[in-house]
Design brief:
By secondary structure, the protein is mostly helical. Helix 6 packs antiparallel against helix 7 and helix 6 (136-148) packs across helix 10 (243-257). The chain is built from 14 helices and three strands.
């Protein structure tokens, strides 16, 4: 009897070891499947979930999610979504967490650990509610400030970065992620690892933007590494400017120009201005903005034209005129 008990215990321990390996394989495959930027974002959300579950690591998080059936998993994730809402998290953050969990459950199913997937959906997003950004006039004021200080290393760097944010509508992480090797001066283009992309893509920039980049490189030097350095005298880290530092740069330059500015706001302004310049040619502008979905760009176009506001005024005018 005792021998049977020991055998059962040993078999159970082996089953647990096998299960742990499988769960770790799921987590590893899940993270390896993402590009660098998505992986970092998903790791952050998994870390937040792991802390809430009060377990040791991602493998234990996967165990809690995937070893008690579909009903338990979906109920748990729904509770987690509600928890994030109660914390006042932005809808984009909540939906990124849901996307990470759903993606990992797909990997778990693909590897045969489960035969179901987490089905909890996103919360209603208020993203793109304001797609106008600071506006073209504000950007013109910013350019004046940039031109005044473009002779200094910091000023030249800031001008090149802000030109990329507006005139090529790059995202914040795309700008700070550039290396010197990502600049093709002769062909007037930069190589970018875009949002949700797994491979770098070359994108042509304006002559003005490339001139600003060249001016910065002359002061920066031609040593390999990050294109935009922090210019920190202490020389911390690898020297790459951080996303938060780019935020600070844009805010400070905006303040000098007397306008409110932020990196993604410059992208919003660029896309809206591009739609104006092309008379609403969303397919052409989609090549510029690099949105994956046309309906996302249509939000910019709808907000730009403000059809809702036009109808509101028509109704008000009708009442004022006394028409039936």
């Amino acid at each position: 009897m005792e021998q049977n008990r020991e055998l059962a215990k040993a078999a159970g321990a082996e089953l647990v070891r096998h299960e742990l390996v499988s769960l770790q394989d799921v987590v590893r495959a899940f993270l390896q499947r993402q590009n660098e930027n998505t992986r970092k974002a998903y790791e952050k959300e998994l870390r937040r979930l792991t802390e809430w579950l009060e377990v040791e690591g991602f493998g234990d998080t996967a165990r809690v999610l995937f070893t008690n059936g579909a009903g338990h998993a979906n109920k748990l994730v729904l509770t987690w979504r509600n928890e994030l809402e109660e914390r006042g998290m932005a809808s984009s953050t909540i939906n990124r967490s849901m996307a990470a969990i759903r993606s990992m459950s797909k990997i778990a199913r693909l590897l045969g650990l489960i035969n179901w997937e987490v089905e909890v959906g996103n919360v209603q997003s208020s993203a793109y509610k304001d797609t106008a950004g600071p506006g073209v006039d504000a950007y013109k004021a910013i350019v004046k400030v940039l031109d005044e200080d473009s002779g200094s290393p910091r000023g030249a760097r800031n001008k090149a970065m802000i030109f990329l944010l507006f005139e090529r509508a790059l995202r914040r992480f795309e700008v700070v992620g550039l290396d010197l090797a990502d600049v093709d001066s002769k062909r007037c283009r930069v190589r970018v690892l875009g949002k949700g992309r797994r491979e770098y893509e070359w994108h042509t920039v304006s002559r003005q933007t490339m001139d600003a980049i060249r001016s910065w490189i002359l002061l920066r030097g031609d040593e390999p590494g990050p294109l935009f350095s922090s210019l920190d005298p202490a020389g911390k880290g690898d020297g790459r400017l951080s996303k938060s530092s780019l935020n600070r740069v844009v805010t400070e330059v905006g303040n000098k120009a007397g306008v409110k500015a932020w990196p993604h706001g410059l992208r919003h302004t660029a896309i809206t201005a591009a739609l104006d310049a092309t008379k609403g040619d969303v397919r052409r502008v989609m090549k510029f903005s690099r949105h994956k979905r046309l309906d996302t760009l249509m939000i910019y176009d709808d907000n730009r034209q403000d059809h809702g506001g036009e109808i509101s005024q028509l109704l008000a005018d009708q009442v004022d005129s006394g028409d039936d």
